Amino acid sequence: MQRIHPFGTLKARMTIIVCALVFLSGILLSIYAVNIVERDMTRLVGDREYALLSSAAAQMEQDLQSKRAVLRVTAEGMRAAQVARPAAVRRHLEQIPSLDQQFFNTVAIDAKGTLMSSLSGGAAAGQTTVAAREYFQQTVATRRGLLSRPLRSALSGKPVVLLTEPVFNAAGTLQFVLAASIDLSQADFFRHLDRLTPGRHGYMFVVTTEGVILHHPDARRLLRNVADEEGGIVPSTRQALAGMNGWVLAKNKAGVDSLIGYRRLATADWIVGIVYPTAEAFAPLVAMRQRALLRTGIAAAVAGLLGLFAIVVLLRPLETLRRQVASIRRGDAGIDIIDLARRDEVGALSRAIHALTEERARAEAESARLASTDSLTGLCNRRMMECELDKALMRLNRTRTGIGVAFLDIDHFKQINDSHGHAAGDAVLVEFARRLKLAVRGTDLVARYAGDEFVVVFEGLYAVDELPALGGKIVEAMHVPFDVIAGGLPVTTSVGLAFGGADSTRESLLKCADEALYVAKAAGRNGFFVDGVVAKACGVEH
Ligand SMILES: Nc1nc2c(ncn2[C@@H]2O[C@H](COP(=O)(O)OP(=O)(O)OP(=O)(O)O)[C@@H](O)[C@H]2O)c(=O)[nH]1
């Protein structure tokens, strides 16, 4: 039997396909589920960070408001007290402790832009002028306080932003301008932001809407404009400068994938920002994805094993059927061992195999019959006769009896054909065969040898003396005219008979019978002749 490669079996292929499908669908499902969860979680984390950012922005806004309020109240007090001279101004400022708490420094600048007094000392009053500074000019022009652009302080050299407040006299003439600075390099003002710094590598920053950096963990970047920096503005910051509030997933300036949020203040042209590297922000998500994929893989492997087990169990009847067919082929068992009662595909296959085997057996029997039968007369053919004669000769050893062989030929059969046609000749052959069978015992073997020649094998004879009676019976059986043409057709036969024992062969017996037939023919036909018994040769006349 042809050996099947282990991976070529239906079982192996089904298992591989089932495992692959389970694994693939498991992985795809888990990727799909993880993606949905990740999308929601990302939104959740982004919204949470943005909420923190908004609260930090609100806090910063409140800080600025309270600083403005302190400065405005100070200016109001000075206007009400008609404070005008530098010394009086300085004294007044020194009496307000919240100025010191809220600001890095507070200065008074006269209407011409000359420094009148500075709370923290520094440059000498009367010698420093800020007339050219934008914040001073705008305050004078608008007669209102403002929040300046970030700048480097002329007094301290520090990066600062200034809050200004004009002080008028009773007639409404500008007396001087109060300018209070916030030191951008001091963490104090941005403490709310820094408290909210996300993770280990995240950071908060503040830029003006023009892109100037007010607060950044890298202090060297303070007062730089993001547009002037190497690499230019990252796209998300460009959007924020254009007015976008919200968060995005994008690369930061260093090229790190990050969650980046922006929140613009309502009362200042400032934008508070947050940068949170995604590797850190979504670390739990990454861990969750790995866990999910690992568990899916394990589940798929278990499902595959269960699938294999199920396939092995389900295909067992097929294996049983294969074994049954193999043992039927070897001849160890009959066709009946196949279970035909199953109600599944294996049952259908069993029934098909059973039916096929039976059909084949029938066909073999039929072809064996055809191979051993003469199709016209239905008698055994020559081949079958020779085979049976051989067997009969072999049996003689046991039975210790003799055997007789009769060789027959229809007399002048050619004339019958020629005179009455081939069909009539066939009909004569059929009738001749029928009569011949009736003339001998049912146990005798009657065969058509060839054309109009027939052979009869008689078993169980004891002596050659028995043959004349048999020959006579045969010749006699043909004497009634054959009913194959109107009025009947006289048909006679000549018979040669031979007797043999255990030492005879098929060839010798047939040869003797044929020779005896020749004698019978020569003697005038319509009679028989027994080989070796010349005295008993006799003609039978009609
Ligand atoms: N109709 C028919 N004729 C057959 C068949 N087989 C052989 N024959 C014919 O049978 C004839 C046999 O003739 P022969 O045996 O030569 O001689 P015969 O006419 O019988 O003369 P004798 O044998 O000498 O009496 C031939 O003409 C064959 O063609 C057959 O199946 N059907």
Automatic annotation (TrEMBL):
A single Gene Ontology CC term: plasma membrane
Coiled coil: 346-373
GO molecular function: catalytic activity
Membrane-topology descriptor: Multi-pass membrane protein
Sequence ranges assigned to domain HAMP in this UniProt record: 312-365
SUPFAM superfamilies: HAMP domain-like, Nucleotide cyclase, Sensory domain-like
One BP term from GO: signal transduction
Cellular compartments annotated: Cell membrane
Protein name as annotated: Diguanylate cyclase
Organism annotation: Pseudoduganella albidiflava
Lineage of the species this protein comes from: Bacteria, Pseudomonadati, Pseudomonadota, Betaproteobacteria, Burkholderiales
